[in-house]
Specification:
It is a single chain. This protein is α+β, with helices and mostly antiparallel strands. 32% of the residues lie in helices and 24% in strands. The chain has nine helices and 18 strands. A six-stranded mixed beta sheet has the order 1-2-6-3-7-17, sandwiched between helices. α3 runs parallel beside α9. The longest helix is centred in the last third of the chain and has 24 residues. It is elongated and about 85 Å long. The two termini are 33 Å apart. The model has no long low-confidence stretch (mean pLDDT 95).
Length: 398
């Protein structure tokens, strides 16, 4: 481990990119390095680990007084895998060229993590009147999993912060909202049999096809008649089938088929009600198909409806554009900085549930357009812009 303190956010970012903290793998070494950087500035930090695996952990640190409301800088330390992607530079090392830093997580979102940690180091030498907190999590990329342990640990934090900035990549624009998400796994069950006698058995893939067709019908309903929330690229709730897996061989009627799907909802929609509508239409399609089949053969088997389990959910984020929090963050950014609603989920909705009176916003360096791709990068100018914003934030705390 590097024992010398980084002098800039870019220095720390170069270090962080070397940690292969892929989701569902250990991030402990990265957290320990950040702890060491903070400790070098006299800042104590608390680690909140996964109860089942201490090698995957969150970190929370505070500098300044603890009895007044302050500002939280929130980021996740995990990154998505690189396997199968055509990288032209080492993914877990910093490559600098043409004013960019390349590496997995440079945009999403180790760039912001580096800026936040170095802002705290600088703040430690100032006479702060309000506290600065840093909250770092693990396994965000699979549905904001790790941060839930941290939020439980902070349940009795008082007073609640004035502002929480989630530093996901927004090109330093202010994100005031994102949709909620619910992920589901549907198991469609049938009966294995010889395909030469296919009508005598329940085909699980056919049931899955009815489910997917119902999703598409619900999507049309939502697009045409569902509530709309302007500011999003897609201003209505979406239903999306992501993976489908079933069958063993072409000449065997499939006994099982699994469909993984999601609902990304605007604030006015309830995912549970949308799921109920999908299942209602699925069963209607199944009954219609069976009626046609029974007209040919009364002894055909009856298909069971899909069994659906909730895999993961997280709430949407909605902060009023005219809120004091937006005005405060705007004051630390260049004049004319725009507001946006982001197309991806963040931990912000969970923080908003925890701290009802806290303004939660999304703002960080880099572009989501390059996140999760080969040769992910962040513009050095974006890191500098984030540092400048955090310097003004720190001045506000003094």
């Amino acid at each position: 481990m590097n024992s010398s303190p980084p002098s800039t956010s870019l220095d720390l970012l170069r270090e962080l990119l070397a940690f292969p903290s892929v989701t569902l793998t250990p991030n402990q070494a990265l957290i320990e390095r950040i702890q060491a950087v903070l400790a070098g500035a006299g800042i104590e930090s608390t680690v909140v680990a996964d109860p089942q695996d201490e090698s995957r952990c969150n970190l929370f640190a505070t500098v300044g007084p603890k009895d007044v409301p302050g500002v939280v800088l929130s980021g996740h330390t995990d990154v998505v895998p690189v396997e199968g992607q055509p990288w032209t530079v080492p993914p877990f090392a910093a490559t600098e060229r043409d004013g960019r830093i390349y590496g997995r997580g440079s945009a999403d979102m180790k760039g912001f993590v580096a800026c936040a940690v170095m802002a705290m180091v600088r703040a430690a030498g100032l006479p702060l009147k309000r506290p600065l907190h840093v909250a770092l999590s693990f396994d965000e990329e699979i549905g904001c999993v790790g941060v839930r342990h941290l939020i439980r640990a902070l349940e009795h934090m008082k007073p609640a912060p004035t502002l929480c900035v989630v530093g996901e990549p927004t090109l330093m624009k202010i994100g005031t909202g994102h949709k909620g998400k619910a992920a589901y796994r549907a198991l469609c069950c049938g009966q294995a049999g010889h395909s030469g006698l296919a009508p005598r058995f329940v085909n699980a893939i056919h049931t899955a096809a009815d489910l997917v067709a119902a999703m598409r019908e619900v999507q049309r309903e939502l697009a045409q008649d569902g509530p709309r929330e302007e500011g999003y690229a897609i201003p209505y709730t979406t239903v999306h089938a992501g993976t489908i897996k079933g069958g063993a061989a072409l000449n065997i009627v499939p006994a099982q088929c699994e469909v993984n799907f999601e609902i990304r909802n605007v604030a006015q929609d309830d995912p549970a009600q949308i799921l109920a509508r999908v299942l209602e239409l699925t069963q209607a399609r199944m009954r219609e198909a069976r009626a046609h089949e029974q007209a040919l053969d009364q002894d055909l088997p009856v298909a069971a409806p899909p069994t659906v389990d909730v895999v993961n959910t997280y709430p949407g984020l909605a902060t009023a554009a005219d809120s004091p929090g937006v005005q405060l963050l705007s004051s630390w950014l260049p004049a004319g900085t725009g507001l946006t609603k982001v197309a991806f989920g963040t931990e912000g909705g969970l923080f908003q549930q925890q701290w009802r009176d806290t303004a939660v916003l999304v703002c960080g360096p880099g572009s989501i357009e390059v996140a999760h791709k080969a040769d992910e990068y962040v513009e050095i100018a974006q890191i500098e812009a984030c540092d400048a914003m955090l310097e003004k934030l720190t001045a506000y705390l003094v």
